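call fold target=UDP-glucose:glycoprotein glucosyltransferase isoform X2
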Amino acid sequence: MPMRIVNNYIKYRRISIFHQLPARVLHGLVIILVQFFYNMSFMENLKMRLIICLYFLILCTIYIEAEKRVNKYVTTLIDAKWKETPLALEAAEYLNDENPSYFWKFIDNFANYNLRNVTEKDNYDAVIAFAEKYLSHSELALMKLALSLRIYSARIEMFTQMAENKNMSFLDCYNIVDIGGVFTCSLEELEKLAIQDTWIRPDIYSVDHRYHASQQSDKIIILYGQIGTPKFLDFHNKLKDLAETNGINYILRHYLKDRIDKNVRLSGYGVELQMKSTEYKATDDSDIKDNTGKDSETTTDSMEEIDGINFVTLKNLYPNKQLELDKLQTHLLETSHEIGALKVWQFQELSYQAAERIMNSPTNEAINVLTDISQNFPMQAKSLIRTKVNNEMKKEMKLNQAIFSTSLNIQPTDTALFINGLFFDLEAVDVLSLLESLRSELRIMESLRKIGFSNKEISSLLALDLSTNMDKQEFAMDIRDSAIIWVNDIEQDSAYARWSSSLTELLRPTFPGMLRNIRRNLYNLVLIIDPLSGESSPLITLAQSLYLHSAPLRVGFVFVTNYDSSVTGLTDASVAINNAYHYFAETKGSEHALQFLIDLGNYIGPEGVDVEDIKKTIKMQDSSANINYILGEESEYDVGRHLASDFVKRSGFRKFPQALLNGVPLSSDQLNANSFEEAVLSTIISQTPALQKAVYRGEITEGDDVVDYIMNQPNVMPCLNERILKPEKHTWLNLIGTIPNDEDYNKWSPQDLSSWLMNKMRYIYVPRRTTVHHLYTFWIVTNLNELKGRQLLREALEYIESNADVRISIIVNPLVDTNDNTIDINQIVLAALHTLPVEKIMRFIRNIIKEDVATVILNGKVDIEEEAVKERLKNQIDELYIHRRYIKTVLNLEKGARAIVCNGRLIGPLDDDEEFTNEDFSLLERFTQSTYDDKLLKKLIKGQLLENDEYEKNEITDDMIMKITSLLASHPQTRSRFHVPFHGDDYSAIKIPAINPDEVSFNLIAIVDPVSRGAQKLGPILKTLQQSLNCNIKVFLNCLDKNSDMPLKSFYRFVFEPQLQFFPDGRINGAMAKFTKLPTSSLLTQYIHAPENWLVEVIRSVYDLDNIKLDNVAIGVHSEFELEYLLLEGHCFEAVIGNPPRGLQITLGTEKQPLMVDTIVMANLGYFQLKANPGEWVLRLRQGRSAEIYDFTTVGGQDVLQNDNDVKVVISSLRSHVLKVKVSKKPDKVGMDLLSEDDKSSGLWNSISSFSKFW
């Protein structure tokens, strides 16, 4: 029997197995053959034993030979162009981005730690042990991931390049101090230089490390050094002392003098081996079949022969050995190193078959199986076609696909990754950006956990979008005010009688830029002008032009005049203009009134306009006018001054002229003769779509007042205040820390100081019976010993009397430090806050800050009746010091400055002459409510978040509301979060729960076709994130119904490790891409899939990477690439007309070598790119026509310093760096074209004629 099986096997083989079978195949065959013999009768015959031994020896020989031949590989790595950087410094940079105080604690801890005499593994272990004190488990895992990517190596290199550009290497010192451009390695010389009164201010950037006790002064000292080097600790301690005592800015930059002769090994890229199109064989089959419903055996029979073994014949001969033969066939298919030919019909369900195999694997191995199938698909296809597909899986998958298509616009074969609802397109995103998003998410999640929320509640809060497009939202002021002197009224004036009053005219198509003539006050322009100022003249001229040409725009004026009622037009020019304008408007009409203002402009000169000039202008317009009556005390035309005063005050403007279009302020830099008309037109065009939508949706009807509708919109405020409404004025405090146990408050971090202060705070509020929360918490930062400080507190107290949702407290900021012997108003108010009950405290403080009482106290006569307050005054000196510390280090305010903190948002410092009134407090509340509080309260307070039993355990407090608001509002969502709906996840989804449910956990949802290019990249990313983070993973398999061709024709590896690996001797074992299980006879082409801003080049490879054939190599193919350049990209436009300056040349270099690379601005979106590397670079316009015609107007981007046409840019990251450049032509070059020669002697024919002179 055994002889017959083996002989039949040899008889029916077509290709010698001794030349084809790989080692693991033979090993499997040996197992099966032994099993065959064992199942037969006992082998008593010696001959039979010898035959078995013979065949066994032959198979072992083949096993050894095959093992030698097929163990071939392809490996690839990418190194940076710069030398190795210490892991300890990279860890310090990571900690700095988490919290600057961690960085300085790290420097203090490792200042004397010698990095050079220990291994890299020892350094790594030391920094991880330090980070464990400050970071959570998840934060520490992300730090390890960041270190494995080496993303902070670029920043260390940047600092070192800054030093080398300044020729510091010639000093031959490990630590060098830069004081105003003077470099020294001596502590003694440092002390001498530091006592100078002034020195040159160096360039500093946001990536610089400013010592936390440093003041915002122009005296900056920069230390270029490395921790652990000789004298570093001495320099560090000396500069810390100077920063704390002398108010000097101490900045630390890393400088590596002695470096290891090895480049940094990078990761975070993909490597693809693509099969040449001639290498894949597909057998055409005109009878296209569908294997749906076929059983496993029928499918198996399609593979008639594997590695010379005809399994169809063997199964026919030995039907009772089907199971053993199936095992052998599966083993051969999975371990074969060659690609067999498949018939076209066998492609159809490959995607489903791959999904079936994934779903049948153990849960903890499912992602590994997904990765293996997608990354080695050409080798896996042969075994996949034998897999029977579960119909329940297909049914569930199709129902899910229908939902994905309608709700998320995700089609079959599309790949999507959602992290806490944030969508990531794996085709576009790189792992560096992915890591930054994970860090940002984790910071918020950890903070919410510290507040006391569970993972379920955290997910609900993360879904809140509190940004409401604040950066794009235009706030308006209510213009329904009698202070406005309207020049015209489109709805009432006869000049517009022929226009249609139907609002549906808004929906009528027009040419771009054309205004619709509708007899409605749809657009209302209010000009707030000082009529005595020459800057107002262009605006008045345009207003007259708009009026005379019957533009569909209502125009009105608010005059900034002398608001003293005792002053008349006979003595004050501004009052005279107000009276005269009203006279002409009422007696002659608006046209004459406008003409009066324009004629008056002829008298505006360096000395201004006086009353006599106004009288002349009145006489010129109306010779019969009674000037003394018009301008006198009894004039009926002296109206509106008080109303105008109130309107101007509520507008918040301090400089004039200003303009409001439908209440929205126009930009101040557009209020000139050149830009004003265009600004008005563009604003009208931008506001029109909102009105069109309102008409289309029926929100406004023909019977409605248009102005009322516009003024009732959420963006319209009762008054305007830039400090409150402008996004760039928003500064948020980090209120989430821990209350320190030690009493050395000088070492407390800013967030710990905030936590201590919040714990000690006592509040003033209106008592009420209900237990509804105080939604708004105001901290009034003020000096109550000053009149303006007391006035600020009085306005706040007046405000809360009618607002039960608000509570206030006080942070005192005296102009001079308080001593133990004096008692002032600040101390008395603080003592009252901590001792008196709420019912008495407001009355007590109101009395204390009355001016007559305050004067008595400031004169040293203190008479306090409350005994509790007297006792408290004896024991609050420490609290006063902490208030001062908080104001200095956290709020960054000067002594005596005033400010307001609203739910963690800092507003201030207020200017000396700036008032913050009751109306401003009301505006602040309304703005806060409309922008984020409404959403937060609906989710948090009204029970939608805590509807479960946890409500009692986790009751929301006023402090929690303050913390949540400051946290979520300070991290506005720049991207949308998506909810991923689905029909079912039982048969077609991988579900892996978080390992530690008690810790914060990410929610990762992926939608992927297991045999798509997206799966090749998604698999390793999910695997690494699963190893690094505490996360719930759900992967929906999104298969294509029928494939008409091989879905994947490439092998893929993604270099992305959860943490660094080390050799036994402590050296870093750099990451690389390694391919095994490759076909040896196929022709492969290698591609590198690096981030878009990486320019990589191969620097070492013995073989042609475009034509890899493993049959032709001895062991394998190894290649090494280098990151040659990081691209500095940007877009350039002309500031005035907005067109790209096509052909403009931009150069990039250093101070020592100004021209290293150059580029040309493209006509397509003004795009340009320059080759750079980590360091400080100088961006200039190329000498020649570019520099002769153009100047830089603005250059925007991260860490950009502009000084006219010299622009400095630092490259500090491996991520993409994009600039936004605006240029403008020089005044005398406006008519010149960059690409044409303006010299008349230039040109082709002139060149020929010039050349002919030599003949």
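return ok
The first strand starts at residue 73 and ends at 83. The chain has 42 helices and 44 strands.
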